[in-house]
User: Fold this.
Amino acid sequence: MPIVRRKTRKVIVGDREHGFVGIGGDAPVALQTMTSTYTYDIDATVKQINALHQGGADMVRVAVPDKRDTVALKEILKQVRVPLIADVHFHYERALEAIEAGIHKIRLNPGNIKDRPKVEKVIAACRERKIPIRVGANEGGIVERQDKGQRAEEKSALEQDYQGQMTAIMVEKLEEYLRIFADSDFYDVVLSAKSVDPEIVLSAYRECSHRFDFPLHLGVTHAGPPETGRIRSVVALGALLAQGIGDTIRISYAADPIHEVEDGKELLQVLGLRLRTEPELIACPTCGRIEIDLISMMAEVRRRLKQIDVPVKVAVMGCVVNGPGEAEGSDVAVFAGKHKGVIYVSNNEGVAEQVATVPEAEILDRLFEEVHKFADRVRRGEARLKNQKVEIKPPDPIGELGSGWGKIKKDGIALPVMR
Ligand code: SF4
Assistant:
């Protein structure tokens, strides 16, 4: 069953030179990441942005804590071909400078840029250049920082049912902040409500999805290194995406951001939300029935698949216990037997046909002969890879809004506005 995506408003990020990426509406879920370089180090930042774009990122965000970072943006933009987002905290002037430099999207943190006139200045500049703004609330920054009394009050409210209370605070703060946008009649907005706790991420985004029709940027913040952050991220983002919630994702790791792109891409591909562009390898976990050194064979298959530019699905199985039924989920499959391999290839009806039985020493070469033949058939339009289709359904009537909010219809979508 394809995932039915919840319909949201759509914002466009980019320009002719850097390409356009849609977020929300009928656009596919966009993959983004963030550089780990100092943005003022132009060469290092350009190198990383280009590697991330090459790796599959649809958009790349950069930090701009200082003026020297926004000054560098002009040169960086000349040397990359992917839309860029400026991550702005504390100083609204950085947003104005980034907009002036030609940035394609701004991220504002409601936790540290709160002053209405300042936010209005950023909104006005974005409106003039048709630049969307992400309002990005994070659990860590959402509870009052400066006012100790208010902070203590907000913290004490969290003692019981921490997750539920935190979700309520995050959504309430977002709603409060969005009034500035509604008053300015500015709706090119993307929302995020991140936490390190997957349970809060799930409840916060479900609540945002229920209340607002703005597209949602999903993420688990400071998830840790890939080894531990992977599960934390995938459990939350995977569950939301499978429910049709989420229009762009960023997986955050304490590591080279290329791993964020690799894992984000894989997550979208396994959910059928992004067309696979490279081969996929599936293999059995091995057990006491194994008839071959499958682990070494799989490593070699993986290495050779890097040369294939068609998203062929290849299965490597340690024995014939599940037979052709298992092979039907793949395009080309090998089942090991005693010192031999049985090779299956999917025919035009998607049914696995046995094409050869070869001695163990010849398995790899014969398998790749079939993989190349199958890839050629795909290129000639004679064989079809599995179709991936994503449905987008109109939104449910949006849920109860906070006091002072009403709903209007804009472009056919219910949109919360301040009464
Ligand atoms: S395919 Fe065979 S060897 Fe592999 S896990 Fe299944 S039963 Fe075990």
